[in-house]
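BUG: 3D viewer hangs when loading the predicted structure for this chain

Environment: internal workstation, default settings.
Expected: structure renders.
Actual: progress bar stalls at 90%.

Input used:
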Amino acid sequence: MKGKKKTGIFRKYLDFPLIYKITIGFLLGVVAGLTVGPSISVVKPLGDLFLRLLRMIVMPLIFFTLVVGASTIDPKKLGRIGGKVIAWYFATSFIAAAIGISIGLLVKPGIGHPLAEVEYTVTTPPPFIETVLSWVPENPFEALTQFPEGVLPTIIFALMFGIGLTYLRNSKINRHRESGDTLFKVFDACAEIMYKIVRFVLEFAPFGVFALIAIVIGEKGISIFVSYGKIIGAAAVGTAIMILGVYSAVLFACGINPLKFLRGGKEAMLTAFVTRSSSGTLPVTMKCADENFGVNRSAYSFSLPIGATINMDGTAIYMLVVAVFAANAVGHVLTASEIATLIVVAVMSSIGVAGVPMGGLIMLTVTLGSIGLPLQVVGLIAGIDVILDMIRTMGNVTGDMTCALVVSKSENLIDFEKGVWKKGRTS
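C-alpha cells produced before the viewer hung:
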C-alpha cells in the first residue's frame, strides 16, 4: 500500500503542469531568499546540479534535433518557392536578432544587479576573421565534446549533415535511399530520446530554479526585479517592432494591407500567445492562411510547417535580450565579434527549438554558452519564461503567416476574392 501511495504522489507531481511547478519554485525561492538572506546559499548544490544537467543535454540535443530538422526538407520543394521561403526565414531571423541585441544594448537589463558567486573571466577576443573561421569545425567530433566552444561548429556541421541526409533519402538509387531512411530513423529516435531526457531535466527545473533565485534574492534583495521588468519590456517592444514595423512594411511594399493581415491572422496570433507552441498552433495558422487569406494550399502547406520548425524571429529577439542581461550581470561589455557570434548562434540554434518543451529556454543555454556567459541566467529567467514564451511564440507565428503571404503574392497564389480581401468586408 505504501508503494502505491508513493507512486501516486509521484504521478501527481508529473501530471501537474510544469510551468506551474517552475512558477511555484520561483516564488518559493523569492520568499526563501528574502526570509533567510545570504545564508540561503546552503541550497546552492541544487542549482549547480540543474546547471550540470543543462550542460549535459545541450550538445547532443543540438546535433540530433538539427540533423532531423534539416533532413526533413524535401529537395523537390527546394525550388523557386522553397528558395524564397528559406531565404525569407533566415533574413527575418537575422533582422529579429539585430533588433533584439539593439534593444538589449539600449535598455541595458542587468546593470546594477550582478549575479551572486558567478566567476567570469574576460578574455581578449581573437580577430573577427578568426572568429568566423572558427565556426567551421576542423574536427566535428571534437567540437561535440567542447561546450561552449564547440556550439556553433556543431550547429554548422549538423545542418550540413542533415542537408546531405535529405538528399540521400530522396536519391533515385534504391541503396542510397534505403540507407538514408534507415539513418534518418536512427537520428529521429535519438532526437526523441533527447526529448525524453529534456523532460526529465525540466522536471527537476523547479528545484534548480528555487535554489538559483533564492541565492540571488538572498544576496541582492528584491531589486533584481527591475531587470526582469526590463527583459519583459524589451522582448515585447522588439516583437512589436518586428510585427508592426518590419512585417507590416514588407506587406505594404508587396501590395498587401497590413491591417487586413492583422485582422485575418489574429486567431492564430492569439492561439500562439495562449498555447506558447508554434507547432501546436499550426492547424490554426493553416486555417487562417486558407480561409482568411486565400493562400493556395501548395504554398502554405510547405511554408508554414517549415516556419514552425526553423522560423523563430520572436525567439531570436528573446535570446539576444537575455544575452545582454547576462553580460551586464557579470559586468562584461560585449565586443563586436561576440555580438556577431550571438546573432549567428541565436538564428541557427533556433532551428532546433521546435518540438522541444520550453525549447526557447533550453536553447538559451546554447546562445549564452557560445561566448561563455553564465548559465545561471537560465534558472533566473525560468520563473518569468511563461510571459516571455507567450510573446516570442506570437512573434514566431506572425512571421510564418507573413512569409506565406509574401511568397504566395510573388507567385500569384493568393485568391483575393476570399477571406479578409473581399470588398466591403469589415470583420
